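Q: I'm writing up a methods section and want to include an example of the input and output format. Could you take the sequence below and give the corresponding predicted structure tokens, formatted cleanly so I can copy it straight into the document?
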Amino acid sequence: MLKKILIAVGVLLVLGIVGIVAAVMLTPTDFKVEREVTINRPKDEVFAYLKMLKNQNDWGPWNQKDRGMKQEFKGTDGTVGFTVSWDSENSEVGAGEQEIKKIVPGERVETEIRFKRPFESKSDAYLTTEALGENQTKVKWGFSGAMPRPMNLMLLVMDMDKAVGKDFEDGLATLKANLEKQ
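A: Here is the clean output for your methods example:
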């Protein structure tokens, strides 16, 4: 009887391990979040504002969550290589840095975000502008990254689009309001 119980427990353990390994291998590792807004301002003005990372203090959702976070700036804002680092006691903000990696004048700003806290990770972000008319600009804000295996299992219970998407929507709404009242 004891032998049968041990065999059953062993089989269940093996099946459990196989199930976890299968979940790790079948769960995607990549994620992407993107939102957009139309701003009633000329594209050149919108792009000139967006390429300056310091301006995110006025519209970025995480800056709104902790106005007292420590920030440090390196380089010339609005140029490749400019880096802003932040450190906040607010767990929703954490600590990390964002660096401008590429600028396509009038079209796109690409940055790399390196999170240090609440967990270490690296993601790519971008802001694009598209003229919809003389005084109307579509702004897209996107963010993508990957979670290494077995951390990718978190994507089964955490919807990155839902979690980060709301912050993007809030930030873009603030951006729109700020730029349209100028």
